[in-house]
Amino acid sequence: MKIKEIIEFLNSVAHPSYQESYDNSGLIVGNSQWEVTGILVCLDSIESIIDEAITKNCNLVIAHHPIVFNGLKTFTGRNYIERTVIKAIKNDIAIFAVHTNLDNVYINGVNTKISQKLGLINTQILAPAKGVLNKLYVFVPDTALEKVSEALFDAGAGEIGNYSECSFVAKGEGSFKANENANPVVGQKGLRHYEAETKLEVIFETHIKNELISALLKAHPYEEVAYDIVVLENQFNRIGAGIVGELKNPIDTHSFLKKIKEEMNTDCVRYTSLCYDQIQRVAVCGGAGSFLLGDAIKAKADIFITSDFKYHQFFDAENRIIIADIGHFESEQFTIELFYDLLTQKFCNFAIHCTDIKTNPINYL
Q: Does the domain spanning 110-129+239-326 belong to CATH 3.30.390.50?
């Protein structure tokens, strides 16, 4: 099996278009045409991880954090990033990162994994993304409506939440006049023709646009297909930052803080004033989530669990919510488990390993 097939699967879980503009997810080192000998999954693809991959005969490292965020101008080994890239290249080891695109998906996403660890129910995206959806309007002769609809649905259009094959149709009449160079399916050259047509509307995600248009043109009977695409400002509740959910039953606040420490396997929880005696509604965000504090308050969460809050940002809680900062590594460490479960369920013809190395650069006394 080639690395390309692994990449295609992971892209189907968390499409690259979902990553943030500053991110660098994707294949960072290596050739997608290489045959896979083994996979090592980790949080940070640092130099010691490459050494581990060599020992375990793994030529593909799948990491959450990209080892390269900005462009490298030199490869002299002067820092850990350059040393890691050099060692990976010398040993024919590919590095693939799935970062904020995995953070931003609801199904099999980083934040959903955290919410499962904490036993949250009735979960939803805390800050749904905008600009992810488009709408296609296409005019179809009535006789071809079913064929075109099926083609669009098969290409991935018409999915809204838990529903698929969603569309809207409106009957009407279209007109056209074919010139001498045309090859019309209906009507005669040089004469205006009126045809009973249906306006078909479907929603689709931006990243399938090319495949969708290709399917449309293949299925539509007309030589020239009339269609429009518009970008929607609608929020998309399956893509976005953070998760908010509820505990099945309220828990004493001190007890819940202990539960966080235990379930998230962290040595330290930094938290603000305990303005609530009990916790039931919980917001979470793996990694640096301070930018979502306002969304957590708006969602009426009792507590917001994330990491990397700066000193003065803790004041922003203002007794409206409890902030619980559990550490960056600690908040995302179970992404390794997420990768492993996804890959072992899909592939079984080569070894998949979880790293034995704790790459957290922070220690606690």
A: no
Question: Cα angle vertex 327, ends 326, 328, to 5°?
Answer: 130
Q: What is the bridge-based pairing of β-strands 278-288 and 303-307?
A: parallel
- Class for the domain spanning 132-232: alpha beta
Give the closest residue to 46 by CA, choosing from 73, 85, 76. 85
Kindly list the distances between the CA atom of residue 118 and the CA atoms of 247, 260, 286, 303, in Å, as whole numbers in the listed order. 8, 7, 13, 12
CB 66 within 8 A of CB 28: yes
- pLDDT tens column, 6-35: 999 999 999 999 999 999 999 999 999 999
| pLDDT-derived band at 47, boundaries 50, 70, 90 | very high
Question: What pLDDT shows up at residue 299?
Answer: 98
**How far apart, in whole angstroms, are the C-alpha atoms of residue 155 and residue 184?**
26
CATH code for residues 3-99+334-354: 3.40.1390.30
**Is 50 within 8 Å of 84 (Cβ atoms)?**
yes
Q: What is the mean pLDDT of residues 55-64?
A: 98
Look-up of token digits 């970062």: 99
> What does the pLDDT look like over 275-305, one tens digit per residue?
999 999 999 999 999 999 999 999 999 999 9
Could you read off the pLDDT of 224-245 as tens digits, one per residue? 999 999 999 999 999 999 999 9
